[in-house]
Design goal:
Four Helix Bundle (Hemerythrin (Met), subunit A); 55% helix; globular
């Protein structure tokens, strides 16, 4: 399932880039820096979230979340697994020495609801720093 899940997450991220290509002038390049653009887009979208259906909000959360997961996978490697408790993919990096895992859909959903505390670059930075300085035996989940 992991390979299929990897393809699905990557496909959703690629589709988001294609959809937003004109709007973002090609700035969505899977770099950590591109998450500032994601933050701006989510901030703007949060102004209209009240007018969106639950399905539209879920779709945006999934698409933007997949982009964030792909930024992390391209930087740190790792594998996707399905996180049953939250019904979404989780990226796990560092195995077998350690595990630093990242969930993104809920964070995007929070940001879309207007919660500025769910800042995407800040969230990713915390994950990335922890992944870089992980030591054997670490087992951490970023939600």
């Amino acid at each position: 399932m992991s390979d299929g899940l990897t393809q699905e997450v990557a496909r959703a991220a690629d589709q988001l880039i294609a959809t937003l290509q004109e709007r973002t002038s090609g700035s969505l390049d899977y770099s950590e820096g591109s998450l500032a653009v994601i933050e701006e887009l989510l901030d703007e979208a949060s102004n209209f979230a009240g007018d969106m259906s639950p399905e539209q909000l879920q779709g945006l959360s999934q698409d933007f979340g997949c982009y964030i997961l792909e930024v992390a996978r391209r930087e740190f490697g790792g594998r996707y697994a399905w996180f049953e408790q939250r019904d979404q993919p989780v990226l796990v990096v560092g195995e077998p020495a350690f595990r630093v895992a990242l969930l993104a859909w809920d964070k995007v959903k929070g940001r879309l609801s207007g919660d500025k505390a769910d800042n995407i670059p800040f969230f990713y930075s915390g994950f990335a720093e922890r992944a870089r300085r992980a030591t054997p035996g670490d087992d951490v989940l970023y939600v």
